[in-house]
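lol forgot to send this yesterday, sorry. struct tokens for the thing we talked abt
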């Protein structure tokens, strides 16, 4: 079956695309790293503007689909790697690439979220997996099986879950009684039940949103990988100049980026592209409600 490469990119407009491209300052024939390929929207726009792209993702499907489409549309101007962006320094070195800019989009793509087998969403029934890279060992269900109440409290508190303690206590009790939720919809219903018993009113955010987020972060070691990825970006850019942009989608990862950028700017290693984080405008949030939590931060190194 023949696949239209243009059609394979449709529907993959990422959050704050115009802003990220403006501040990344794409120059023709220079290399840029898209450290979270996802649906390929950022990488494609860099290519459309004349840049070259080293794209990295932990999801084999994301890499394969982008590579298949881009080989026809942008031959010789991209490299797509299945890997962890925490290793982007080693990956870039192996490929012989000196980037002029690096972009992190830390939100998971709609492709991943819409696959019920990933267990990332509670809109459809699926296993409690949540691995972005299926080669990883631990699934979300494995943590539900072995975490203590205090470990659950720490986990959920990292994403500012207001009912971290009651949810943790309920999960441990359910495990002892042999009724631990083992699918996405059952876990979402379980957390909603805790909210109902505590008298919390309905809000725009589903009660299980933060619990799912916390489990996904732990399964994929997102905080640890982000810290390593930022350090790797510094090594790639600090002596050569260039720009680093990071799109975050929740307070935990944003705190890591904000703190790291502050340390770099205070030491004179980098300077802010814009001092306060940028947010999507009302029109973008109207088109894509998931964009409402996005924050964009950026720094540059040396002379460009």
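and heres what i got for the seq, position by position
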């Amino acid at each position: 079956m023949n696949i239209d490469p243009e059609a394979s990119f449709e529907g993959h407009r990422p959050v704050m695309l115009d802003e990220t491209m403006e501040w990344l300052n794409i120059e023709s024939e220079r290399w840029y790293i898209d450290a979270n390929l996802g649906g390929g929207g950022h990488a494609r726009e860099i290519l459309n503007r004349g840049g070259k792209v080293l794209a990295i993702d932990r999801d084999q499907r994301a890499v394969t689909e982008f590579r298949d489409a881009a080989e026809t549309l942008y031959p010789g101007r991209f490299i797509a790697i299945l890997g962890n962006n925490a290793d982007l320094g080693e990956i870039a070195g192996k490929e012989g690439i000196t980037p002029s800019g690096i972009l992190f989009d830390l939100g998971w793509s709609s492709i991943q979220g819409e696959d019920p087998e990933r267990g990332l969403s509670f809109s459809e029934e699926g296993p409690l997996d949540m691995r972005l890279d299926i080669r990883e060992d631990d699934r979300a269900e494995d943590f539900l099986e072995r975490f203590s109440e205090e470990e659950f409290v720490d986990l959920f508190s990292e994403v500012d879950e207001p009912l971290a303690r009651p949810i943790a206590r309920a999960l441990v009790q359910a495990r002892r009684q042999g009724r631990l939720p083992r699918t996405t919809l059952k876990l979402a219903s379980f957390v909603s039940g805790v909210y109902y018993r505590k008298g919390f009113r309905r809000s725009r955010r589903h009660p299980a949103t933060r619990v799912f987020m916390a489990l996904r972060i732990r399964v994929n070691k997102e905080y640890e990988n982000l810290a390593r990825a930022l350090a790797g970006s510094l090594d790639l850019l600090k002596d050569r100049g260039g720009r680093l942009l990071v799109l975050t989608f929740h307070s935990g990862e944003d705190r890591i980026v904000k703190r790291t950028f502050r340390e770099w700017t205070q030491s004179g290693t980098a300077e802010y592209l814009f001092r306060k984080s940028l947010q999507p405008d009302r029109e973008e949030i109207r088109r894509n409600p998931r964009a409402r939590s996005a924050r964009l931060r950026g720094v540059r190194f040396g002379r460009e």
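Confidence is low (pLDDT under 50) at residues 1-5. anyway ping me if u want another try
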